[in-house]
Amino acid sequence: MRRLFAGLAVGALLVAASACGSSGGSGSSGKSPTSANPTTVKVGIIPILDVAPLYLGEEKGFFKRNGLKLSLTPAQGGAAIVPGVVSGQFQFGFSNVTSLMVAQTNGVPVKAVANGVASTGEPGADFGGLTVKKGSAIKSAKDLAGKTVAVNTLKNINDTAVREAVRKAGGDSSKVKFVELAFDQMPAALAKGQIDAAMAVEPALTTIKSQGGTEIAWPFVDVAEGLTIAMYFTSTQYAQANPAVAKAFQKAVAESLAYANTHPDEVRKVLTTYTKIPANLLSELTLPHWPAEANRPAIEVLEKLGEQDGLFKKTPDLDKLLP
Amino acid sequence: MSPRLTNAALGAAGLAGFLALGEAVPRLGLVSEDYFPPTSRIAKALGAELGDRAFWSALGDTLTGWAIGLAIAVGAGIVAGVVVSVVPYLRRATASTVEFLRPIPSVALIPLAVLLYGTELRSVLLLVVYASFWQVLVQVLYGVQDVDPVAEETARSYGLGTWARVRHVLWPTALPYVMTGVRLAAAVALILAVTAELVIGAPGLGARIAVAQTSQAVPDMYALVVVTGLLGLLINVGARTVERRALVWHQSVRGEVAV
After folding, report:
1. SS3 B179
2. Beta carbons of B122 and A21 less than 8 Å apart
3. pLDDT confidence bin for B71, thresholds 50/70/90
4. In the structure, what pLDDT confidence band is assigned to residue B230 with cuts at 50, 70 and 90?
5. Which pLDDT tens digit goes with each residue over A279-322?
6. What is the spatial distance between Cα A187 and Cα A207, in angstroms, rounded to a whole number?
7. Which of A55, A98, A244, B204 could disulfide-link to A32, CB 3.0 to 4.6 Å?
8. Is A87's CB within 8 Å of B115's CB?
9. Do B72 and A18 touch (CB under 8 A)?
10. With an 8 Å Cβ cutoff, are B215 and A275 in contact?
11. Is residue A53 a contact partner of residue A270, using CB atoms and an 8 Å limit?
12. Span A135-145, mean pLDDT?
């Protein structure tokens, strides 16, 4: 009997503990954070290539210097990050620009605070490419009419970019069939012929190329030169309540991005700490660009294209969204 | 050879055959080695995993989510089951609601978990508890139904109170069912813990599988999948042991001929 009671008591306690767990965010204040007494900020990220500068910047002390302590929390994609930032579980998050514009036009209070990652702008040497399998008859994006193209998310940035690549090559983008497939599954699907082409980013891109697949277009480059792909954002409430923290974060991220851009070897090294990219792929990867500032004219082009393809309910307000 | 030894030998031979098949099929080119690495490469990746501190902390995270979730589900399931059965009319009043809520797959609650708790342990717990709670509850309800009416009436006529009847009549009858529920819940809880980590990204083995997947580290991914399989095996063996210990007195375990 006593054992039963003990069991029940523990169970009840656990229920209570889980029910009244705190929901408040970390301490917020308008004061400038200092390196002596750093403010901890939780950042929701996707454990991929793109966020390497944050790991590097934390290692190099750029965040500490600006009075911040980073708590990088990997999440499985933007679907988990945006609600986390808006509800205050994360102070900052990582998201691609199209998703941020979609969120804003849906009334989700997001505000980009720092640049994230950009296309290299070089055809033939970008971290994302439109690929076909070895020996495919498709030689250019123009040939994709009636073909199946895989993108990681439908009605999002890669979808827009591929459509633009098809248009730039002189094809009809409305004739392309898009299917949704995670980047990591693209090499196998392409090799098996389940899809005709894949919009892949690193490291899946290198896997495809190592199996003899070829790139037929560089859609990010086709959208605009030096296209800003993703940014770090926060909620509008947090940005208003903690302008000093947001500013410090922006500054530390800019320093980290600049450092990552000039130290590719250290980037490859830090990748081994939070991803499991095999050594043979790691040395082959095309790294993205990490400019300190977002490219506003390029984002405007992305917005126009997104609007043309019907991604937004209304026109995104870039003045409000961008830093 | 004793039957037990024969069984063990047959089991080992079956496993060896399976592993050899896993080695041969990709080597012969029947499936692509890139996406289905041979056993030896998976074993090598598994060895590397075991030497990595991050792996052990991921394992710890998964087991924490599993254990806390299971404890809550078992505690709540037993209490709810007994209360529903003992209080008059409650069983019939809740039956339709239970039958409506029970088939909702726990994974369908992932968006809710993310909205409420983000990528923390609590979102794993929500899914684990939801899935395993019903396993326990339903078994408790069945178990209580199985109470011998003669024993129940006898207890009443001896003037035993509600609590004493729960303790001396209802609980011993229901216990074998409860243990079955706990065993099922233990397996389901592990599945849900790993699923939640894989889909939401909460720290644990599931999240590590996802990282290996996005990193194109195929052998590592299979190695981690093997680990979750072994974990499930251990949990099942453990649950059976607990079940046997708790039911030492019961006919099903004693294996005694009925009178």
Report:
1. helix
2. yes
3. very high
4. very high
5. 888 888 999 999 988 899 999 999 999 888 888 888 888 888 88
6. 7
7. A244
8. yes
9. yes
10. yes
11. no
12. 88
Smallest Cβ–Cβ distance between B125 and the set A18, A73, A277 belongs to A18
**What DSSP line would sit under B81-100, residue for residue?**
HHHHHHSTTHHHHHHHHHHH
Residues ≥6 apart with Cβ < 8 Å to A233: A85, A92, A93, A94, A95, A100, A110, A111, A112, A113
Cα–Cα distances in angstroms (integers) from residue B5 to residues B1, B10, B233, in the given order: 6, 8, 21
Residues of chain A with Cβ-Cβ distance to B117 below 8 Å are 89
CA distance A76 to chain B (A): 5
Closest CA to A166 of A113, A231, A216, A238: A216
Chain A residues near any Cβ of chain B (below 8 Å)? 1, 4, 7-8, 10-12, 14-15, 18, 21, 44, 47-48, 73-77, 79-80, 83-84, 87, 89-90, 182-184, 187-188, 191, 203-204, 206-207, 211, 274-278, 281
- Residue A79 identity (one-letter amino acid): A
- Other Cβ atoms closer than 10 A to B80: 18
pLDDT of res. B30: 83
| Residue B238 dihedral angles phi and psi, to the nearest 5° | -60, -45
Q: How many CB pairs under 8 A join A and B?
A: 110
Greater pLDDT, A21 or A280: A280
- Is B78 within 8 Å of A83 when comparing Cβ atoms? no
Query: Residue A215 above 70 pLDDT?
Result: yes
C-alpha A124/C-alpha A216 separation (Å) is 9
Q: Which residue of B has its CA nearest to A271?
A: B215
pLDDT of residue A6: 43
Residues A172-186 have a mean pLDDT of 90
Judge: A90–B118 Cβ closer than 8 Å, yes or no.
yes
Of B75, B211, B216, nearest to A8 by CB-CB distance is B75
Task: Summarize the confidence of residues B142-152 as an average pLDDT.
Answer: 89
The residue among B157, B152, B181 whose CA lies nearest residue B168 is B152
Q: Do A128 and A185 touch, CB atoms closer than 8 A? A: no
Cβ-based contacts of B185 with chain A (< 8 Å):
none
Q: Do B118 and A83 touch (CB under 8 A)?
A: yes
pTM: 0.80
Query: Where do the DSSP E strands lie in chain B?
Result: none
Report the DSSP pairing between strands A197-201 and A128-132: antiparallel
